[in-house]
TrEMBL record:
It comes from Gekko japonicus (Schlegel's Japanese gecko). The keyword Membrane applies. Residues 43-64 are annotated as: Disordered. This is Tetraspanin-10. Residues 44-54 have a biased composition (Polar residues). It is found in: Membrane. InterPro entries: Tetraspanin/Peripherin (IPR018499), Tetraspanin_EC2_sf (IPR008952). The chain crosses the membrane at residues 91-113, 133-154, 166-184, 304-327. The keyword Metal-binding does not apply. It is a multi-pass membrane protein. Keywords: Membrane, Transmembrane, Transmembrane helix.
Amino acid sequence: MRQKLVTFFRPLLRGLHFQRREMGKDETSALLPKRNRVDIFCPSNAQSLSPNSTREGETGSPRKQAIPWHVRKPSYRSLNSLSSCVKYLNFFWNMVFFMAGLFILAIGIWGLFHKESLASERITYLGSDPMLFFVLAGLVASTMSLLGCMGALFENTRLLKLLNGGIIIFVIMEVLGAIILFSLRHQIKASLRDSLMVAVLRYQDDADLQFIMNEIQSGLQCCGVESYQDWMTNLYFNCSSPGVQACGVPSSCCLDPLENGTILNSQCGFGTLGLEEVVAQSIIYLGGCVPQLSRWLDNHAGAISSYFVFLIVTEVGSLLLASKLLADIAFARTLY
């Protein structure tokens, strides 16, 4: 019986003896950090599987790994489909006005160089140059529209708020300007008459006034301020003048300045101030520009009002689109 028990427990005793011998080897070995089997083949996975592991020689906070840029989470939740439509509608809406502003700016710059206002360095006359209005209007429109494009494309709230502030300022200025023009229309008419009379007197002395007067007379089909006889006040067109322009008017007063040709006849109005009105009316316009302008404004009051309302509606539409996009961006950031 004793021999049978020894034979039965002999494998168990050998196993215990082997385990004690291995433990003794571990206790006598150098105290070095041991790696798991996973750490040998894939160190990065081992670090991720053991979040409480620390670097060698460090005692404290767990090891932190830098997250690559392409797997980082955005700072806020992305916009939904409706908000994305509003975003790109904002972008294309402002892009249209950005191109229009650049076109107006190009017209103003072309006008300044065409009249050599900049080439001749006549800086003192730039303030009265009508093309300067196109330059400023185009520059402001293109700049504000560019802010709207960049703010919508990159979801930049600062640019969108700056666009909204500019639109609100422009709408207020336009409404106040319209009210002032309507309430002071009689004083403005008198000031316009005085300004045109100055342009008639200094027609040959100022290239800008000459350009403005020619454009007004050819566009409105008029001559002079109140009538064509106003050109008698000009020193060069007066009948007592010894020059070749005596008793004449500018070519912009002529009914047919080209005289059925392709080249402008600058002398088509010479001598017309000494003719009878019946004869002169077949060569030049007899009516003045101020009465003609009053009639034109009365006839086109509805169209001018429509253009003004369209401009206000367009600006308010831009304001509403930008405000909607700002609200969507703020809502997406609160949900993150």
